[in-house]
Amino acid sequence: MRISTSWGQQQAVNTLLDRQYQMSQTQLALGNGKAIQTPADNPAAAARAVDTNSASAQNDQYTRNIQSATTRLSVEEQALSSAGDILDRIRSLTLEGMNGTQTDESRQSIATELRQTLKQLVALGNTRDGQGEYVFAGSRTTTQPFTADGLNVSYGGDQNQRMVAAAAGLQVATGDSGSDVFMSIRGGNGTFVTTAGAANTGSAVVGATSVTDASSWDGGNYTITFTSPTDYEIRDAAALPTDPPLSTGTYTGETGTINFKGAQLNITGTPATGDTFAVGPSSSQDVFSTVAGIINAFEAPGGGAPMNNQINAQLQNLDQASTSFLNTRTKIGARMNILDQQKAIGDDTKLQYDTTLSNLQDLDYASATSQFVQQQTALTAAQQAFVKMQNLTLFNYLK
Amino acid sequence: MADLLSTGVSGLLASQVGLSTVGHNISNVNTAGYTRQTTTFNARAPELYGGYYVGRGADAVSVQRAYSQFLTQSVWSATSSQSRALQYAGLTSAANNAVSGSANLQTALDGFFGAVSDVANAPVDTASRQALIGKANTLVSTFRSLSSQFQQIDQQTNQQITAAVGDINSLARSIADLNGEIQRASVGGASPNDLLDARDQAISQLSQIVGVNVSQGSDGMVTVSIGNGQPLVNGTDASKLSTAQNQYDSSRLEVVGPTGSVISNQFGSGSLGAAFDFRTNVLDPARNQLGRAAIALTDAFNKQHAQGVDLNGDAGGKFFDISAPAVFNSTSNKGNAQVTASVTDVGKLGSADYLMRYDGTKWNVTTTAGVAVPSTGTGTAADPILIDGLALTVPSGTPQAGDSFQIQPTRNAASTISVAVTDTSKIAASGPLMASKGAINTGKATLGNLTVTDPTDPAFKTPVSIVFSSPTSYSINGGPAQTYADGDTITGNGWTLKLSGVPAANDTFGVKPAASASGDNGNALALAAVANQGVLDNGVTTVGKSYSQLIAQVGTAGAQANTALDAQQSILDQATSAQQSLSGVNMDEEAASLLRFQQAYAASAQVINAANTIFDSLLSAVRG
Description:
The structure holds two protein chains of two kinds.
Chain A: H1 5-32, H2 43-98, H3 104-125, E1 146-149, E2 152-155, E3 163-167, E4 170-173, H4 178-183, E5 192-196, E6 205-211, E7 222-228, E8 231-236, E9 247-250, E10 258-260, E11 263-268, E12 276-281, H5 287-299, H6 304-361, H7 365-391
Antiparallel strand pairs in A: 1-2, 3-4, 5-12, 6-11, 7-8, 7-12, 8-9, 10-11
Helix pairs in contact in A: 1-7, 2-3, 2-6, 3-5, 5-6
Chain B: H1 2-27, E1 37-43, E2 47-49, E3 52-54, E4 58-65, H2 69-100, H3 105-121, H4 126-185, H5 193-209, E5 212-216, E6 222-226, E7 230-234, E8 237-238, E9 242-245, E10 253-256, H6 270-307, E11 320-321, E12 326-329, E13 338-343, E14 354-358, E15 363-367, E16 385-387, E17 390-396, E18 404-408, H7 413-416, E19 418-419, E20 433-437, E21 446-452, E22 464-470, E23 473-476, E24 482-483, E25 489-491, E26 495-500, E27 508-513, H8 522-529, H9 536-539, H10 543-583, H11 587-623
Antiparallel strand pairs in B: 1-4, 2-3, 5-6, 6-7, 7-8, 9-10, 11-19, 12-18, 13-17, 14-15, 14-18, 16-17, 20-27, 21-26, 22-23, 22-27, 23-24, 25-26
Helix pairs in contact in B: 1-11, 2-4, 2-5, 2-6, 2-10, 3-4, 3-8, 4-5, 4-6, 6-8, 6-10
């Protein structure tokens, strides 16, 4: 077959150019470490790399969300821990104040300290997070939630809970509204509340109360009236005086209990005839009113059974408040656990995404380097062959 | 014996022609399109000398091209295909560079939705809100920059079309002129080899731009047609092609034949065919896909944003702005009807462009590729024509039969997207509603999730009070009693509220619109979730996914173009090798021919010398 001299040369040059282009592509890849220079190199991998990058970026964002949520929850947890300490202090001050050896003056000074602790409690309710937002304000995070007017503390936030996206489809609360934590605390023992009649003259004091049979308790209002220091009758508060009592009983002092409708009351001391105790369903009482009730009881002169009755009722409320704080802290702990777990999962996922991405778009240096050497050998061979071929012409011998 | 002298001279002359041809071949070894020439010799008619014939030498009778019509046509055809593949690969490579550059849309989307999450983490923080607006602007400018890169490629395509049409016209003129010269030069029967080569070379150049079909006439002239049979050169006449704006979209050029008809889609191969093919099959779909992503983002994000409440207590306004689908009138419309289009359902929106044609009684819709699109409606405002998530209306004017409009729902959308929110307080991060529990409730029911189901409910924002008349029965705003069991969901006006626990009689719960300056992040969380929300293709494809589909689409086109180029290049190389092996100049062969004719020349000179010597011998013998 004839070979056209110029076409033969052109083809040889084209081969050189091709080899050089391939080498330059390998060199480019070696330079920037990318296996995919443009999507055309590997369309499926390029598209997957974009998807994986996006998933990885989202994963990183979830990690940031979790960090921000953890910070916020830590602030809340710290505030509630301090609030719990304050409740303990209030409790010991109250027990100290109930001591029979106290005088009006000493009770007054205890009340003064209690007023200070109340202010501390309000200040904790107004705790702010790192961004200056009020933690316990629900969603009104820019408005101070608790305002004190004397002993009256009002709540200006709402009942919303802020959430954080910790993973796709997983939202975790990063706070609790002040309404839930400080305000809507069930009074009494959580089911019913007992109040001594204001006109009581005896020394009877209500101690511990409890529910012995929750299914029998119907949530109604009842009155225990002492018809004599040793006899009592129980009536439905809404019943007419002419109706017969629900039940009657004999009061045996502190060894006995009064039981009706699943409720059980321990009354100690000696009641006077006509003394009454009202029993009604628990309603919400905020922790500030509870403290205020104790302060008011201490500041009222006289002490004795009326004061003890009031204080006992408030101590029950104080216990409820402690429980509320503790419950909230347990919830916070559970949320932080979830967030920690999610963070660990997120870290693992990130590792997987990084591996996938690396497999998709990172250059395999070993194979690229050996490819480069091969291409170099091929180019050198082609160049040498080209030069040799050019010397092979008959004209060289026409002298 | 004078005959020996003239025989020697004939050999000298014939060898000179042979030497000249060899010299010509050697000189043109690197001339593009040159065809090797060979000299043919004939023995002169012998002279009857007594009883026998004596030869009288040789004549060079012709100089011919080593030429094969078939091989040359194969090269032209392979050139057209290779040139098309080369151009296509070049253009798709430009598109690939556009999507692999620094303007990575996915990164911008991730950054944007990350900023939305940051707002959810700190809803009233001005810095995070400002960062969100910043990221939104980055996202929008990435959309625009990608779109403008695609537009630039489109403009380059236009320029290439203009240049190609100019080249076709000038080559057609050259071929027609050469036809004339060849006809005149062939009158004596001699073959004007170098003119033929020049014409073949011109046709070869033409075949790079567009596929050619050449037929040889008996008068030595060729007839050239291009594409699907569009006549270009006939004898000494050359047709003139021109470019014109598309009848709908003035931003794109079409090729118009001498009769004024559009012949853009008739160039299968050559670089011109590649330009139109690339525009229709790679660039337009890519631009539409990008625009569709922009529309999907705008629609989904705006819808969710509208559900929220901003820091001023107002419902969220538009977050992104984007233009309505583009509608183009045909320049040949006779009526004065105007058409407007709007997107009604992003989930059904495709990447196609549509033609809407009035047949005198009703409108018919097809895709620009000519596929009929099922539609409902008559086109009035009350009854718009509904197709693929679009509503088309003819709000004014009267159409005439044959009037048509082109609708490009997505093509330029990505270049028009912008951020509508500039004031940080207008970001609607808060949920629209707040649930509350009565302060004096005695029951144990607590609030669960408040979920928005239908923000368009007319009574959506009416404050609602839920009052329990017993632990198992409640009424909403004094309405009829409904039964409740622990953990039930209460359904209101476009929302549902889950309660858990047992309420007591007279317990109340409320749902009311969110207040201003709310630190609630309900809507911000929902906005961040838009990133993973299936929006396109009936709620299957997320915005991000539609971008990676675009990458795959453009990448696949690029990979196919590169493969096709490799294949076409090797076909062209083979065709050229075959043609060159016949018609190309081989230097060794020419060197041998040179020696051959040199020797023949020297020998002929010896013949003359011999004749001379013989004559001298005779003279000296006579002289004695």
